[in-house]
Amino acid sequence: MRRRRECKECQQRFSTIERALLNTPLIIKRDNRREEFDRYKLLSGLQIACARRPVSMQDLDHIVDRVEYAIRQTGRAEIKSQLIGDVVIEELRKLDEVAYIRYAIVYLGLSDLEAVRAEMDRLRRRRNS
């Protein structure tokens, strides 16, 4: 929820965004550590993948919203981080192919140019079919 407020000292107006606190499952990382889902950490990673791309903050917020929805729908107390990565990579593939490749390099562990080229070829085939 977005609210307009006013500072009592300087009378300047500003906006705040309020978000309901909902329980989200713990995220099981690849090394079996568990941590709370952090919306802002995910958003930060998306901003890096989408740097200098024609992608709006609203688009990125929608992706994070869909990820949050997907992990809550599992109904589990803990989920693997792979579920988040899978949702994000699919959303980026639909949104911006360059951002998708940037994210895929890290998420899919594309370690050399041949692996990146193979992923780009796979993306092209998917787009053309």
What does the secondary structure layout of this molecule look like, with pairings?
Layout lengths: L1 E5 L6 E5 L8 E3 L5 E3 L2 H11 L7 H17 L4 E3 H15 L1 H11 L5 H16 L1
Parallel strand pairs: 3-5
Antiparallel strand pairs: 1-2, 3-4
Short recap of the structure:
It is built from 5 helices and 5 strands; from the N terminus they run E-E-E-E-H-H-E-H-H-H. A hairpin with a 5-residue loop joins strand 3 and strand 4.
Question: Which features does this protein show?
Answer:
single chain, 129 residues, alpha+beta, 3-stranded mixed sheet, 5 helices
Q: What does this molecule look like?
A:
It is globular, with a radius of gyration of 18 Å. The model has no long low-confidence stretch (mean pLDDT 90). Helix 1 packs across helix 2 (57-73), helix 2 (57-73) runs antiparallel to helix 3 (81-95) and helix 4 (97-107) packs across helix 5. It contains 5 helices and 5 strands, in the order ββββααβααα. It is of the alpha+beta class and 129 residues long.
